[in-house]
Amino acid sequence: MYVGYFDSFYDLPQLNKHLRCHWRAYYPAKKVGAKAPIAAGKFPLILTLNLPTDCGQNLAAAGNIVCQLQFPQLSATTPNDYPQWLAEHPQLVAANKQAVKQSLLVIEQLLSPQQINSAPLQAHIRPQQVGACGYGFGGSVALELLRRSHLIMAASGATNYLASQKWASPCEQPQLLIQSPAKPGLSPVFKRARKRAYLYTTPQLTPAKLTTLSRSFFAASFAHQPFDFAQLF
To answer: What is the distance, to the nearest Å, from the Cα of residue 163 to the centroid of all Cα atoms in its chain?
Structure first.
């Protein structure tokens, strides 16, 4: 499948009158390249957070419209006791919450028929199939998005923490949690999930691994099918 792309931005005065959020869209196209005509049909929308360019292209080649956002990549120790860890990291929790708000505004703009900056995409998005996928700090943001918004149907995150007071909240929607064995910060989150949660622990915690898993995870989730990552490796 051909992949096209274009760069754009949204002004988000709801958060800050001077905030301009830049993003890049990748999408199934009629030919390869910048501003290529989008392919006919409707496609799921996946918001990627702190992922490199090739990951967005990979997800678009699988038949998704991808909107890439980049936030500062904030690292932190791995939580052992989540309530204490959250109390010790108030700035990280605040940054996570702010990034969630910004991401939700971007999704709302992408789905809005009045938004001219993303007009080429809007008619091709399936609004009932919206996902979030993030790496590191972006993974934490993606997993909180799933817990904060009815717009997000599924989320995948490769990270060693979830910097949110919602970490223990039961979640009905599909979620893919990817962690390393040395930093198993998502295990407590997984144990409190009600259903349709998948935990994958790997020493190779890379954006490429996240993308490979997420392609199949989102395809299964959007089709309301169980996800079997054992078939991928």
So the answer is: 15
The pLDDT value recorded for residue 195 is: 81
DSSP 100-158: HHHHHHHHHHHH-TT-GGGHHHHTTEEEEEEEEEEETHHHHHHHHHHHH-TT--EEEEE
Give 145-193 as a DSSP string: HHHH-TT--EEEEE-S---SGGGGS---S-EEEEEBTTB-TTHHHHHT-
Strand partners, 208: none
**What pLDDT, on the 0 to 100 scale, is given for residue 193?**
87
In the chain, the N- to C-terminal Cα span, in Å, equals 23
Q: Which residues of the chain have pLDDT under 70?
A: 231-233
Cβ atoms within 10 Å of 132's Cβ, excluding its own = 34
What is the rounded CA–CA span in Å between residue 100 and residue 206? 22
Instruction: Return d(Cα 138, Cα 26) in angstroms, integer.
Output: 18
- Identify the H or E element spanning 4: strand 3-11
pLDDT of residue 123: 92
Residue in this structure with the two tokens 């001077």, named with its chain if needed: 18
pTM of the model: 0.95
* Residue 110, both tokens: 């992408």
